[in-house]
Structures are given as structure tokens and as C-alpha cells.
Amino acid sequence: MIGTGSISIFLAFAVSIYAIIASVVGARYRKRDLVRSGEHGALAVCFLLIIATVSLLHSLLNLDFSLKYVAMNTSTDLLPIYRITSLWAGQAGSLLLWCLILSIYTAVVVIQNKGQSRQLMPYVIATLSAVSAFFIFLIAFVESPFEMLPFVPVEGRGLNPILQNEYMAIHPLTLYLGYVGVTVPFAFGMGALLSGKLDDEWIRQSRKWALLAWTFLSLGLLLGARWAYLELGWGGYWAWDPVENAAFMPWLAGTAFVHSVMIQEQRGMLKKWNMVLIIITFFLAIFGTFITRSGIISSVHSFAQSDIGPYFLGFIGFILLFSFVIFILRLDDLKSENKFDSILSRESAFIFNNLLFLGAAFTVFLGTIFPIISELIKGEKILVGPPYFNKVNVPIGLVLIFLMGVGPLISWRKASKENLVKNFSLPIALFVLTLIVLVLLGIRDLFALISFGFCAFVTTTVIFEYYRGISVRIRRGDNLLIALFNLISRNSRRYGGYIVHLGVVLIVIGITASSVFVKQREAVLAKGESMSIGDYNIRFDELSQYTTQAKQVTAAGISIFKGEKKIGSMVPQKNIYNYEGNREINQETEVAILSSFTDDLYIILTDFEGSKASFRVIINPMVSWIWAGGIVLLMGATIIMWPATRQKQKEISLSYAVGSKDQTAEV
Amino acid sequence: MFRGRIKFIIAIGVIALAIAYLVYGGVRDTMVYYLTVEELKERVPGVYEQKVRVSGNVVAGSIKKSLDGNLEFKIADGGDSIDVIYKGIVPDIFKDGVEAVVEGNYTSENVFKADLLLAKCPTKYESTDSLKRAYN
After folding, report:
1. Is residue A3 pLDDT above 80, yes or no?
2. Section A415-433 average pLDDT
3. Is B9 at the interface with chain A, CB within 8 A?
4. Residue of A159, A363, A584 to mutate, interface with B, max B Cβ within 10 Å
5. Least CB-packed of A1, A251, A502, B100 within 10 Å?
6. What gap in Å lies between CA B92 and CA B89, rounded to an integer?
7. What is the pTM of this model?
8. Do B38 and B101 belong together in one domain?
């Protein structure tokens, strides 16, 4: 099996190089057969990488410790499910997964576009194959997942206990689907630049793929936050760690892109900007992979330090140089079809949205690489920590939430006074009302007030839009549910987008509440003693110690009371893992969380001695809103991406063909 | 048309300036020097007023923990070591020999008062040395 795996990788590398050459030469000399052969090459790469991955999975499941990767990441006491997830626990396996996902995406692109867009596609395939070739090169020659050990250990090192968690099983996978997904819209951009086919085709295709990548990145970030919250045991979900920022930056740029493509589709503007934006987004995705995989910036995530750093730097440099050179060569073909009419228009709301998202990405980028810059310039390592990121990004974020309410309601081209009054009186009234209610409730924190106020503003605009759409249909005789269904399905991008916005609102409410109103207490308690925090009374009942096959557990039994009424019991733990292998990490603190709609009670067993134990107790208000927002966001994104019916697809491509740009009358 | 353009340029300029201001203020107020133990000692007494981040390996046997969460330990790199006191969340991998990163103030009693403690694995994560030692 091992031989099969490594041979497949070498073959995949050779074939992906072939696919680049065949596609480019075929397109250049209009050799249809050669282009088709390149496409088949891309499919073959996918097939070969599936074989390699299955082969590695086979070794992982059967604990074949003669493979270095298996010996380093698994052990005999590891559950089969985590043997599978070990595929992305280490460096080489993660890179293999990167290649596999990219090759699958490439295969989908090939199959979806068979026989279509004959000028554009060869260059798209060539770009995708080139990115594949780089990553396959890494696993073939630098960091092979099939490297053998000179001896066969009887036991492996095992998987880090904090990675043995169901969220860790899906979070990296989701994030990778997002990271890698960004390559596809980038490839369409490059394809358009290289082939000179700079019409709507590339933007339509990349919008679809960018949205898919964006959705996965959003979910990956949220799942990562949830994992940190459950597993890292410091009470929070986001720490502005370089590895977190690495995923956040392409998300920010990608968010700008999925918005600004709409301007190009609707109004034929911002063509240059969109091209630059997708190049930047791809750069940030690769840069993020580079940070997480090379260990260049010290992070608490104990990822591998390895030799792939210089290759990555070379690759990033090449991408930037290459894409900007061909971009400049094509500048003349990227002229706008329309001009901006007014600063009070949907176009300009989008422009400001874009500037702010990109500005935020830039500030995060700067903060992340600050130690490197300062060392280069001043010869001293200077860090900026979480306070920097919060100070800079909170104001930007608040303005963005405001724009999220403005964008959908303001008219294209130039907003008239009537348009502004008609659409914004109600949301502004609700904004003011929310502020008054919150102040009366005793909230004085300025950021919280503004944030909640803007959230009310956005929510009102969304409800208002739905109400308008539905009432038109009800007047035509539909009943409420049918009206709602038709409204969404006839214009899924618009109304799905609103649902995504609602999801974001829920997330913002959760983040705001949990960061502004968090409460924390520490206490040393003897058996039977209680402490109180907020409305909760917490009684420490007992400390029990027992041994399972995998670990020695110390568990504190705690009863939770609200007033006199017992509402539940919690069991925070401290575990020591028994390893046959030789691991540095064997301790694990398992927090206990009692979650509700209004707040999370978060208890950490920090230490124990005899029958006494010390606890850190945190009340995190409304954290569950963040996760709920994630689900709503996913629902909205699914509605947007839901494949249109055949009839509708025809209509869409027809409307592109005719070039009907003005679609303001959408209801 | 022309007036609209100027409005745009002004608006974009305002955004750019606002972001630049946020970055400048953020960096100025939150930056910390990242030093080794040796560099920290070289900078005495100037370093007493500054917030700094220091990394070093936890000296074996130096960890003293009390139940109320107060933690004392020494970190060292090369020959020098400093005393650290800390109260707060202790990472699971914190123990003798790991590389610890602390952030806080070095006081004039030559004790480092940390308000942040991070820990990293001492060896390269993917080194196979441990496997060889155990089973060869």
C-alpha cells in the first residue's frame, strides 16, 4: 500500500505538469485534442491523489508504524475515528489533503465546463494544475507522508489529546475546503487575464466558487472558535493568534470579493478592482497556509516547524509577480462600462464595504507580521497583541454592520430623497428605539449600545424587505408560505443573502454580549462549600478520581442553583493520559459548560489538593448566539448556492448574453 | 460629475486616514518588546517601566504552585534566569523544561510579574528522536 501511495504522488506531480503544458500549448495553437488531453490530465491527478489518500488512510487505520507519519500521529489506543482525522493532524498529511481537495475542485471545474468556454477554460485548468503542481511537489519531494522509518516502533506517539474532539475532526477539514476553494475563483481570474476573455464568464464562475469558499471559511472559523472555547479552557473563543488571523484574512478579503462581484455583474463596473481583489484573496489564503505550516511566526498552536518555508516564499513571490504583471498588461481591457453617479448609491455603499473589509484585512496582516517587520527595521522583536486587533477592528466592524443595513435598501446609481426616507425611516426609528430601551435597561457601554443598535437597524431592513416582497405576492393571491417560498426561490441570491446577513447579526450580538458583559471569579472550595456569581450559586459536592484505559481522571462534581432551585450539575475534569508512547503533552483540562440562550456558565477545575479544589468560573453572556448565527449563515448560503432549475439557468445565461445589466426591478 | 468624484476621493481619503489612525494608535498603545531573558537583564533598569514579553525554558524543579492559583517559577535561557510570579490560567502543557512565554512587568525587586502565560513544546513537534530513544 505504501509503495502505491508514494508512486501515485510522483505520478500526480508529473501529470499535473503535463496538464499545464498541454492546456497552454493546446489553447495557444488551437489544438482541441491537446486541450482535452490536459483536462483528462487534471482528472487523472484527482484519481491519483485519491489513491494516495486512501493508501495513507489505510496505513493510519491499521496503525502501520513503519510509516513515520503514522508513528508520529497515532497510537494503539486511538479510536478509529481519530485515526482517520490524523490525516490532517500533521504536516505531510495536511498538505496531502490540500492537494486532494484542490484536485477534486479541479475535476469538478473540468466536468462542469466540458465543451464550454473554449478560450477561457484551458488557462483556468492550467492555473489550477500549476497550484496543484506546487503542493504536490511539496509532498513528493520535501515533506512526504509516505516517509519510512528505519525501524518499526511498537507504539506510536499518539494524537495530542486536545485534538481528540469532534470539532477538531471537522474544523480543519472545513477550513481547508475554504482555503483551497479560493484557488478556483483565482484560477478563473487568471484564466480571463491569460486568455483575454474578460467578459462576464469569469466573474460569474468565480462568484459561485468564491461563495462556496467563503461559506467554508466562515464555518471553519466558527468551528475553530467553538473548538477553542470547548477545549482550550481559557473561557474565550478567539485570541487573535497568528494561526487564527491566517484564516481570518482571506475571509475578510473574500467577503469584499463576494460583494464587489455584484457591482460588476449588475453595472459592469469595478473590473480592475475585482481582479486585484481575487489576487489578494488568493495571496492571503496561501500566506495563511504558509504561516500555519512553516512556523515562521511563533504561535501557541504547536504546529510543525519545517523546511517548506522557503518554497512557500518563492511560490508566493512568483504568484504576486506573475499575476500583477499579466494584470497590468491587460489593464486596457478592463475598462468600466459605467460611471459612478452619486456617493449616495448602492455602488458606493459597496465600495465603502470593500475598502473597510480590505482595510481590516490589511490591519490584521500588519499586526500578524509586526514582529517580523520590526525585527527587519529596528532589529528588535516587537509584538502587538489582542488589544491592538480589538482596538482597530471593532470600529471598522461597527461601520461595516451599519453598511450591511444600508447596502440592500439604497437604490442603484443615485438615491433620491424619497428613496432614503421611504426605506430608512423605519430602520432608523428601530435603531433609536433599541438604544432607548437598552439605556433604560442600564447598559452604558458605548460599543455595546452602538453594536446592538446597528444590529436592530440591519434586522429591521431585512424584515422590511421580506415583508415588502411577500405582501406583493399575497396581494396577487398567494398564501403566506407559498409567497415566502416563491420569493426566496425566484430570487435566491438576494433573499438568501439577507438570511446570511441575519446570521451575521446573531454572531455580532453574541460576540458583543460575551466580550462586554463577561464575568469571572476564582475560588478555592472545600467539599460542600458554595460560591456565587451572577444569578448562579455553585456548590462543590465531591472530588472523584478514577482510571480508564486511556486516562486518569480527576472530576469535580458541582451542583448549580439559581436561587433555591437546582438547575443542573456540572463535572469539570483534569485528566492525565496514559501513553505507551513518548509524548510531551499528556495533561488535559476538560472544562464544563452549562449553556443557555442567555448565558454560558463555564467552569474550569484549575487545581486540587486533598478534598479541596480551586475553580475559575466564568459567565459568558449569549455565546450560543454565535453558534446559532453560524447555522443561520449556513442556511442562507445554501439558499444562495442552491442549483437553479434548468429553466432558470437558461434565463440567467440569456440575460448575460443580452447584457441586461439593470435588474433593479427584482420583486 | 466632477463634484461627485471629489466627494468620493474625500470619502475614501477619510476612510484611509481613519484606518491609519486606528493602526497608529493601536500599535502605540499595545506594542510590547519580545525579549530573551538575557536581553531583559541587559535592559535593566530602563525595562522596569515597560510592558515586555519574555521567553525562556522553565527551570526544572522551580515550579511552585499553591491551590489559590498563585504560581512561581523560573525561566532561563543560556546562563541567566529570572523569577516569575503569575496568577491565571495555566496551559496544560506547562511543566519543567517547556518553553514558556510570559508577558508583564519586570519589577525593581527583579521579579517578573506576568499577566499572561503561554507554553510551547520544548522539542520540535515532529522530531522522531523520542521514538528512537524509546524503541531502538
Report:
1. yes
2. 85
3. no
4. A584
5. A1
6. 9
7. 0.91
8. yes
